[in-house]
Write a structure and sequence with these properties.
Layout (H helix, E strand, L loop, with lengths): L1 H23 L11 H9 L1 E2 L1 H16 L2 H5 L2 H15 L6 E3 L2 H24 L6 E2 L13 H19 L3 H5 L2 H5 L1 H5 L3 E5 L8 H4 L7 H8 L12 H5 L5 E5 L28 E3 L4 H15 L7 H16 L5 H4 L2 H30 L3 H14 L5 H13 L3 H14 L4 H13 L1
Parallel strand pairs: 1-3, 2-6
Antiparallel strand pairs: 4-5
Helix pairs in contact: 2-3, 2-6, 5-7, 7-15, 14-15, 14-17, 17-18, 18-19, 19-20, 19-21, 20-21
Length: 430
Amino acid sequence: MIQKLRITSLVGIHLLILAHIYYFGDEIIGSIDFQEFFHTFIKYGIINAGVLLVFLAFVTTLIFGRFFCGWACHFGAIQELAWWLLTKMGIKPKTVNSSLVTILPLFILLNFYIAPNLANALNSPWEGITLNLGMPEIWAFLPGFVIGTLTFVVDGFLIVYFLGRKGFCRYLCPWGAFLKLPNSLAMFKVRNTGGCIESGNCTSNCPVGIDVSYEINNYNKVTNTNCTSCMICTEGCPSSALSYKWENPLKENFHFKHYGLNREMFTLPVIADKFQSVHTRDFLLLPLVLAFGFAIDGLYGMGHFLSFGIAAISAIFSFTPTKYTKLSKGKNLIIGLLLMIFVWHGVVKFSIWRGLDQFENHQYSSAIPHLERAVTMYPKPIGRFHLILGQMYLETGEIEKAREHALKSQKINPEHDGPRELLERIGVNE
């Protein structure tokens, strides 16, 4: 019954959002997104619909745990659908356990959302706190159709196949990392009511990879901050040993050791084959995921979720034992291709970064080779890079090369005024 209510909630909330968009557009409420708290409130001091959502999620998490993640999140709903479809096809992916589930979401949160927006707020202090529920327009942070579709496929389906149920929530979601602190203090938790027969159902059915059985029997409650209050474990317990109960947080038995991985977890025989531990390779996986993610992040219009989703799947697939025999046969070839792709785009990404940085500092002779390498290696034509190269060649007196890049820029972006103005400057200089 509880799970029917939860699925109804996941579906119903998104139907209401679609109904609002259909009838009102963005006239009343703009973008409802967690990142609004960072891009709009921290950066500018503006309270909009997304900011109110974050405040609501934070407060409700302090009371009910990460209820939002289990009962309202769209990415959670997509992963539930992916898991259901895979099981219907006879595929039951093992849940991959790694320290990355703690480190990587926190890194994404700090590096891409908190640090840059906090720096902006410090450099440009607020003029005051304002309320604007319609800002920005409702599609502001959504990518185009192609990138949006790829994001849902990679983070909603492929990551479930390779990393297990709720793979995105565990390995990538910065909003989950943001809610870990209030979740650790939540009043409602899954608690031990006695009579556990160690069936393993609670652990094997946990969508976020928690050893519920171990935590219940050793801590008398689920302490893992990845818990999304979905209550699958309480509903599926054959001995009714679990209950979602309130307790005064001031009277809680709090120990830091309860929030870390214990070697005795996931060792119960009935659950051992449902999980794959890669903790012995964590020291290698983290730098690889970061290197792969940064190599492609921002290229082709890819956002952080898509780029680091691809990176996490690629790193774990490449450097851990393959779970799927069909893929293991050509694994070395796939690994070789993946490494070549990431190295290639890493060179492109570095060249763009160095070229633009030196251009802004008027170091044209140093910037030109970097951007020339970028436009040669990058499969996607970028008119802006050709325009910048044309400007730099003009400044260094290489008129023909300036004209060549100005014409390329104009061909790529015929409606833009920049190439036309540059060609006029080149003609004047001649």
